[in-house]
Specification:
This protein is α/β, with parallel strands linked by helices. The protein has eight helices and seven strands. It has a seven-stranded parallel β-sheet with strand order 3-2-1-4-5-6-7, with helices on both faces. Helix 1 links the parallel strand 1 and strand 2. The termini are far apart. The structure holds NADP nicotinamide-adenine-dinucleotide phosphate. The site of NADP nicotinamide-adenine-dinucleotide phosphate has 31 residues, from helix 1, strand 2 and helix 6.
């Protein structure tokens, strides 16, 4: 199938970003993934195959975002889509949330995402699509997620504004909102193996689909939002949670 679209995925080295990269490559998109850990990036690019490109870039650093945009521009010119996906989650009660965790989470999940979109504007085509990865935590409360929830709510809140401000550049912004999705994020969160097993079991047994959402479930939805099929959508939010928040 012919597909010349060029897509940048931040945080494409594992989980949802990686699954989306693999899905898009299979549909002949050209895909550039980023990550902040060289070892993970090299492995992901090797696993994705020859058509993928990896660029090391810590999304919490504006200098590194500038370098990322410059490298993409140099190699590809303008791009058709941007999946703003890089993110972290570390479980912490509200009372125990430190300034360091607050800053780390907001700097990656919100500030990084904010400036990634801003700095890519000059190389986003007219038309082009930006997809923001948020979470069901924005509308459904979970304990031990206060700063993560705030970071994702902040990100969702700007989609509306961007759709107005960037309209004349042909840039549309939509949101994918995953439910609990099995990925390396759980292990990195600081939760014990037992707590992770309980979480995944709970969301499998209570879900209308009878299983946990996988990164490969998110990929076709993101592809839809990046493709011309969603051309007239603006600030749409697609909840991909198997119905767990119903
Ligand atoms: N899994 C879920 O249940 C779930 C639910 C809702 C929303 N989400 C969101 O989905 C997104 C992806 O999560 P995931 O579950 O796929 O987790 P994951 O497997 O841990 O993947 C996170 C990706 O983001 C990258 N990343 C983290 N910090 C970065 C930084 N400072 N700069 C550049 N890249 C960075 C990681 O790269 P490195 O390996 O280099 O760190 C990795 O590629 C996140 O925004 C998350 O909040 C996940």
């Amino acid at each position: 199938m012919m597909n010349n679209k060029i897509i940048v995925i931040t945080g494409g080295t594992s989980g949802i970003g990686f699954a989306c990269a693999a899905y898009l490559l299979n549909l002949n998109y050209r895909v550039i993934i980023t990550g902040r850990t060289k070892e993970n990036l090299d492995k992901a690019v090797a696993d994705l195959g020859n058509n993928s490109v990896g660029i090391l870039s810590d999304t919490s650093s504006l200098v590194e975002i500038d370098n990322l945009v410059a490298k993409v521009k140099n190699e590809f010119g303008k791009i058709d889509g941007l999946f703003v996906n890089a993110g972290i989650f570390k479980a912490s009660t509200f009372e125990e949330t430190s300034e360091q965790l607050f800053d780390e989470t907001m700097n990656i999940n919100f500030k990084g995402a904010f400036f990634t979109v801003q700095k890519f504007i000059p190389i986003l085509k007219n038309p082009s699509s930006v997809v923001l990865n948020t979470s069901v935590v924005v509308f459904k409360s979970f304990s031990n997620t206060s700063v993560y929830t705030a970071s994702k709510a902040a990100l969702e809140s700007i989609a509306r504004v961007l759709n107005i401000e960037l309209a004349d550049k042909g840039i549309r912004v939509n949101v994918v909102s995953p439910g609990v999705t099995e990925s390396p994020i759980q292990k990195k969160s600081g939760m014990s193996d037992e707590a992770i097993d309980n979480l995944l079991e709970h969301f499998s047994s209570t879900s209308p689909i009878g299983r946990i959402v996988q990164p490969t479930d998110i990929a076709p939805i993101v592809e839809f939002l990046l493709s011309d099929k969603s051309q007239v959508l603006r600030n749409e939010k697609i909840i991909v949670d198997g119905g767990t928040t119903l």
